[in-house]
């Protein structure tokens, strides 16, 4: 399969094929991400942890005993970003996460256009844009946008003959998700066989070693357990697919809503055409997407979280294939029945897809409301701390308590380790709780300050 996926062999001493331009594209993505900071811009739970860990790495005081699973790539960014302070560091990470998501759209278009022309690219990018929770996730700082961008970019660079670039981009993706590890290992083996150079051995060996070191050594330094990330991932939230009667099947059931029916049909058309043509590129993309889905489902069966955002990468591959599938169908109709029939088919496809698009746009609107509400809550933590007299006053009373999903934001602004922002409240101490929570009404912690979103209580107020 890799041989079919490989670019055509070049004559001896021939220059490599011209690669797609990327520098201006990357700059434009970061520029758009920077402009997006004018909109509600506050990280969500996992990104807050990466931002905290970046500050702790910079200070030589890393603690990872609580919070989400360790992810190396975000912390590579958030460590230098920590120098920008309480307000700057979160915004810098959001810029990177959003730039990754925007780049994912651009690369979905470029790959779709490469497969079957610009209309296929438009369908691919639009399908990814409308995918459930994709924008909501990367807009709040989650890493799925970066993951999709890195993988699609790696595929493009491979097709351009830049295999080493593809490997390095794959290493970046493998620093985000463990499901990518087998693929980058196979690609590294492919490189070793294809190039048989010392420099390739060093590249592949160095990449593999970096994965091991960056995933496991910081985790051991921070928690004393090399496998703390894996253990944490097997402590999912109560609504996780891992608690279903059949977790493996439940992952597929829940993931079905990520893309709309026309996207799945387009992807199926592309797969069937690829089978008939024995096209290695499309079959490889379909195989990778399938293996990734099975991997997520299998890990969920084994007790891992199985969050919906984990299927973003296979969904993106389906989006690219869907663009090609629908364009191929219209072209085949044009070839066999003429332009009028092809145009009529295109109109029918668009009309049939319209209700699904409308539903997806409504989902985007709801997602935006949730982004705004979360930003209003997490973004006003500094206001609550100041209203209660400041960090030193609050810490003087004892332990700081907050809600289960607010621990990271409170720890960041209070300059605490994650484990020092607790959820099971016992005096003496201070509560910084959302005004809708039961903790905000706990009589053991009389109210000392209120803001629009927060109630601050203290056992020392008695």
If you had to describe this structure to a student in words, what would you say it looks like?
The protein is mainly alpha-helical and 462 residues long. The chain has a five-stranded mixed beta sheet with strand order 2-1-3-5-4. The chain is globular and about 85 Å long. The chain has two domains: 18-375, no CATH class; 381-461, no CATH class. It has helices spanning 2-5, 23-36, 45-59, 72-81, 85-116, 118-130, 134-139, 144-159, 163-174, 181-195, 198-223, 228-233, 247-255, 261-277, 280-301, 312-337, 339-378, 381-387, 391-395, 407-414; strands at residues 399-401, 421-422, 429-434, 447-450, 454-458. Residues 8-14 have low confidence and may be disordered. Helices cover 66% and strands 4% of the residues. This is Dolichyl-phosphate-mannose-protein mannosyltransferase. It comes from Solirubrobacter pauli.
Give the SSE string. HHHHHHHHHHHHHHHHHHHEHEEEE
Termini separation:
71 Å
Question: Which range best describes the helical content: under 10%, 10-25%, 25-40%, 40-55%, 55-70% or over 70%?
Answer: 55-70%
Provide the number of structural domains. 2
Contiguous helical run count = 20
Calculate Rg over CA atoms: 24 Å
Q: How does the helix and strand content classify structurally?
A: mainly alpha
Biggest sheet features: 5 strands, mixed
Mean pLDDT: 91
Q: What is the molecular shape?
A: globular
Unreliable parts: 8-14
The count of strands amounts to 5
> Main sheet: which strands, in order across?
2-1-3-5-4
Oligomer: single chain
Residues in β-strands, percent: under 5%
Keywords: Membrane, Transmembrane, Transmembrane helix
Organism: Solirubrobacter pauli
Transmembrane segments: 20-39, 91-109, 115-131, 167-193, 200-217, 256-276, 283-304, 310-330, 337-358
Protein name: Dolichyl-phosphate-mannose-protein mannosyltransferase
């Amino acid at each position: 399969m890799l041989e079919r996926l490989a670019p055509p062999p070049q004559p001896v001493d021939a220059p490599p094929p011209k690669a797609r331009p990327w520098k201006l594209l990357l700059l434009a993505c970061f520029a758009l991400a920077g402009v997006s900071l004018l909109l509600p811009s506050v990280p969500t739970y996992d990104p807050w942890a990466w931002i905290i860990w970046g500050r702790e790495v910079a200070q030589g005081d890393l603690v990872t005993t609580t919070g989400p699973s360790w992810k190396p790539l975000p912390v590579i960014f958030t460590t230098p970003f920590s120098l920008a302070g309480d307000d700057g560091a979160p915004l810098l990470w959001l810029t990177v996460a959003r730039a990754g998501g925007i780049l994912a759209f651009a690369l979905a278009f470029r790959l779709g256009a490469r497969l079957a022309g610009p209309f296929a690219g438009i369908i691919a990018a639009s399908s990814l844009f409308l995918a459930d929770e994709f924008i909501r996730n990367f807009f709040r700082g989650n890493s799925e946008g970066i993951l999709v961008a890195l993988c699609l970019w790696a595929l493009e660079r491979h097709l351009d003959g830049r295999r080493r670039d593809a490997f390095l981009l794959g290493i970046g993706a493998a620093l985000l998700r463990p499901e990518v590890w087998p693929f980058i290992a196979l690609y590294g083996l492919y490189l070793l066989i294809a190039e048989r150079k010392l420099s390739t051995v060093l590249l592949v060996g160095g990449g593999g070693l970096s994965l091991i070191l960056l995933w496991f050594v910081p985790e051991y330094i921070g928690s004393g357990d090399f496998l703390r990330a894996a253990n944490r991932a097997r402590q999912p939230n109560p609504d996780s697919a891992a608690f279903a009667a059949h977790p493996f099947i439940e992952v597929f059931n829940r993931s079905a809503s990520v893309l709309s029916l026309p996207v799945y049909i387009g992807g199926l058309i592309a797969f069937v055409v690829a089978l008939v043509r024995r096209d290695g590129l499309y079959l490889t993309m379909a195989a990778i997407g399938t293996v990734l889905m099975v991997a997520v489902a299998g890990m969920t069966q084994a007790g891992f979280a199985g969050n919906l955002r984990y299927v973003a990468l296979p969904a993106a591959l389906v989006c690219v294939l869907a663009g090609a599938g629908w364009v191929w169908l219209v072209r085949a109709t044009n070839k066999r029945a003429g332009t009028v029939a092809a145009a009529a088919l295109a109109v029918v496809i668009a009309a049939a897809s319209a209700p699904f698009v409308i539903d997806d746009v409504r989902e985007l609107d709801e997602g935006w409301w949730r982004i705004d509400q979360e930003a209003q809550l997490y973004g006003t933590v500094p206001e609550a701390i100041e209203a209660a007299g400041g960090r030193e006053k609050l810490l003087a009373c004892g332990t700081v308590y907050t809600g289960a999903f607010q621990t990271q934001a409170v720890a960041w602004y209070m300059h605490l380790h994650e484990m020092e922002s607790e959820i099971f409240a016992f005096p003496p101490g201070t509560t910084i709780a959302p005004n809708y929570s039961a903790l905000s009404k706990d009589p053991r912690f009389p109210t000392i300050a209120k803001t629009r979103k927060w109630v601050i209580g203290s056992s020392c107020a008695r």
